[in-house]
Amino acid sequence: MAVVSVLAVMGSESGKKVGRRAVLLGGGAAVLGTAALAREELARAWWRLPWSEKERTDGELDHKPAEWRAASAANSRRADRPDDFSVDRVVIHVVQGSYATALKVFRDPLHGAATHYVVRKDGHVAQMVRELDVAFHAGNRDMNERSIGIEHEGFVDRPEDFTAAMYAGSARLTADICARHGIPVDREHIIGHVEVEGTDHTDPGPHWDWDRYMELVAKERARLDGGGPVRAAGRGTRG
Ligand SMILES: [Zn+2]
Question: How far away, in angstroms, is 203 Cα from ligand 1 center?
Fold first, then answer.
C-alpha cells in the first residue's frame, strides 16, 4: 500500500511543523480531511520549486509497454529526477485491493498517495506518475525522492493473487527501470515497502516470492543488455 507523507514533507518545506500521519490506501472517509489538507499544502509548495524542468509531453511513458493512466497531480510532487534527486531504489507494494481500486484511488486528488506504476494480475502495467516526479508511496520523504514505486494487484494474505503473469510483467518493468537509472539488480536496491525505514506497512508480505522475482528481474535485465545472464545478488531475506 502507498502511504502519504505529504504533511511531513510539506511541513518542512513550508517551514511549519506538521505531524506525520499515515493514510492507508483503502482508508475510507476518515482520511479525507488529512488528504485534503495535504493537497492544499502541496498546491502551494509547487510554486516554490526553483529549478527549470525537462520538457514534458502529455501521456508520455517511461516504461514503453505500459498504458498511461494519470494519477491526480495532488498525489505526487513535481520534480526533475534524476537531475534533482537520483533514483536508486525500486519499492514493491501490494494494493490490498484490485487494479481498478488502485487506479481509482490514485486518480483521486483527495487520496494523497500514488505509485508510479500499478501491475495487474495478467501482467498489464499502468503508469500513473512520471519517473521525473516524486510519488507519495513509501511514507518516507527520502525514500520517495530516491525511488520508483510499483503497486501489485491483490492482497498480502492471498498467495494465489501473485500470478506468474504479474511477476513477469513486474519483472520486465523493474528491469527496465534498473537499466534506465543504472540501479543494481539486488535486494539492497529493490525492496519491499516493509523494508522502508520507519514504515508500519507489511507489504508485499510473506507470500511475495523474492527469490523468484529477483531471478526474473535479473533475466530481463540481461535480456535488455542483449548479453549474458546477470545473477541476482540477493540478501537472502524473504517476505
Ligand atoms: Zn505499500
Answer: 5
2 alpha carbon to ligand 1 midpoint, in Å?
A: 4
Q: Do residues 118 and 95 make contact, with C-beta atoms less than 8 angstroms apart?
A: yes
- Cell numbers representing residue 4 in the block: 502519504
| Ordered structural domains, the chain, with CATH | 6-225 (3.40.80.10)
193 CB burial (10 A radius; 0-12, 13-18, 19+): buried
123 φ/ψ sector (left φ>0, alpha ψ -120 to 50, else beta): left
User: Structure pTM?
Assistant: 0.76
* Largest pairwise CA distance in the chain: 52
How large a percentage of the chain has pLDDT more than 70?
73
Give me ligand 1 centre to Cα 179, in Å.
23
- Span from the CA of 121 to the centroid of ligand 1 (angstroms): 17
* 144 CA distance to ligand 1 middle (Å): 12
Q: Could you give the count of Cα atoms lying within 13 Å of 211 in the half-sphere of its Cβ?
A: 3
203-235 pLDDT, tens digit each: 999 999 999 999 999 999 999 988 555 455 545
